[in-house]
Design goal:
single chain, 496 residues, alpha+beta, two-stranded antiparallel ribbon, globular
Length: 496
């Protein structure tokens, strides 16, 4: 298993202060790392996700959903954490991505991505300027800090198990209590429940789903581990299901590998509609008729606008890149010198938002330094955020069905080449229509519907690209210094 520690130039378990190189000699990481979702197997597994363990050698990848696991457990943001439209946001994911070879104070570094389902769903309905529905927070610590051991390997197992300085509960005082729902800094204590909350909405949610004795048993999800022992995960409507994000380097020849069929047949699928029998929802989609496929190959169709052609090309490249790893939920490529492959756009960038401009991403508002692309969330992540166990299906892809979809993709690429190389007046309209229908059907089959409900609203996105300060400014957050009191020692980054 790889990690973003390795991706950023250091090896977990072998990170000592004398390994810091000259920042001027640091080279931007060229390898793309992919994130995949792994369900939580048992309580021991859960305790190794994010910063629940004081041993940073196990902090590979990150966490999907749930409550944030705070890197700095003392100077944390005030809840409720809201979007610009005053809606409470939920954690989509957090990743551990140190840059200690460039910035000594970022020996530990974490990025948190929060989403607003209400704003995301309204973006598809409004013709006005689109609303930002994602916020990103960054936190970092030097190797010497008051929360985590300097060298975990020098401690015994018993010493690690008894280590508690990294827990927010150990930092508890009159000024620091965590909301029992979202994990942010709480504002008050409920006299009935004897728990702290950041807002009335979370107080009511906790009462309804956890505190009330009739609801408590119904909302407890029993998870059976590999050794047949069970533990409890309590699910709340305002939180997305928690899971682990593991990372692996992307194969350089993933797009040109002749063994894609065999690789795909071994992949676990998150798309039930592709397996034999399908599901009820797939019946509502328009079937891809054989005559459409014939038209794609034989060609009979018309004019195509240049903008549409560009959009199709971008979407085709996206689908082609995801073909070898259809269940990737994250792509990480920090501050790459060349932007040719980072980020991987779902469609033309100028179609992603209506507020795009040459000045984006903005420079860091704290130090004035440039921001560059670091990672992106993929639409496949939405399937794992669904509160439905069917999204974690272990059913295997049908090799024959995968072979047929590969043929469809190859024909789509042939038609794209034909359309690009043929004068518009000589391109039959029916050929263009057939290709568009096939592209849409392929997208639905391989990526599924991009809608996730949370709190009654739908979360919807193609890709979410995160740009971060290349200076990784802010120093060691353990000193408690902050510019925005509501964010504690955490700093905000930019998402597109």
């Amino acid at each position: 298993m790889a990690s973003l520690v390795e991706a950023n130039g250091a090896v977990a378990g072998d990170r000592t202060p004398d390994e810091h190189d000259n920042p001027q000699e640091e080279k931007a990481e060229e390898t793309v790392h992919l994130g995949f979702v792994e369900p939580i197997e048992d309580m021991e597994h859960l305790q190794q996700i994010a910063f629940r363990s004081p041993d940073y050698n196990v902090w590979d990848g990150g966490q999907l959903g749930g409550c944030p696991s705070w890197l700095n457990p003392q100077h944390i943001p005030q809840g409720p954490f809201q979007c610009p439209n005053q809606h409470i946001m939920s954690l989509l994911c957090q990743i551990y991505a140190p840059v200690d070879k460039m910035v000594e104070s970022a020996f530990h570094r974490s990025l948190y991505v929060f989403g607003c389902a209400q704003c995301a769903s309204s973006n598809d309905k409004d013709n006005e300027v689109k609303k930002p529905f994602v916020r990103v927070l960054r936190s970092q610590l030097s190797q010497e800090n008051p929360y985590f051991p300097h060298d975990p390997e020098s401690l015994s197992k018993e010493e690690l198990e008894s280590w508690t300085a990294h827990l927010s509960t150990e930092q508890a005082s009159d000024n620091l209590h965590l909301c029992q729902v979202c994990g942010f800094r709480a504002a008050y204590q409920c006299p009935l429940q004897k728990q702290h909350f950041c807002c009335k909405a979370h107080q009511k949610e906790y009462f309804k789903h956890i505190f009330h004795p009739q609801q408590q048993k119904q909302k407890q999800k029993q998870v059976t581990s590999s050794d047949d022992q069970s533990f409890t995960i309590i699910e709340l409507p305002s939180l997305y299901p928690i899971a682990e994000i593991v990372v692996e380097p992307e194969a350089i020849d993933s797009r040109d590998n002749d063994g894609n069929d065999e690789a795909l047949s071994k992949q676990e699928t998150m798309f039930p509609q592709l397996t034999q029998g399908g599901d009820d929802e797939s019946d509502s989609d328009e079937d891809l008729e054989q005559e459409d496929l014939n038209q794609m190959v034989q060609g009979d169709a018309a004019k195509k606008k240049k903008a549409d052609s560009r959009a199709d090309t971008t979407t085709m490249a996206f689908l082609d890149q995801c073909r070898s790893n259809p269940d990737q939920v994250l792509r990480y490529c920090r501050w790459k010198k060349s932007n040719d492959e980072a980020p991987l756009w779902f469609r033309e960038p100028d179609q992603l938002t209506s507020y795009s401009s040459p000045n984006l991403p903005p420079c860091c508002e704290y130090c004035g330094g440039p921001r560059q692309f670091e990672f992106q969330l993929m639409p496949q992540m939405l399937h794992y955020l669904l509160k439905n166990e069917s999204t974690h299906s272990t059913a295997k892809n049908d090799p024959e069905l995968e072979r047929q979809w590969k043929q469809v993709l190859d024909r789509m690429q042939d038609m794209e080449t034909f359309i690009e190389q043929t004068p518009p007046e000589h391109v039959p309209p029916s050929l263009v229509d057939a290709k568009e229908r096939a592209t849409e059907q392929y997208q639905k089959a391989k990526l599924g519907s991009s809608t996730v409900t949370n709190g009654g609203a739908a979360l919807d996105f193609g890709v979410v690209c995160v740009y971060t300060c290349t200076n990784s400014c802010g120093g060691d957050s353990a000193d408690g210094s902050c510019i925005n009191a509501s964010l504690g020692s955490y700093r905000e980054e930019y998402a597109w």
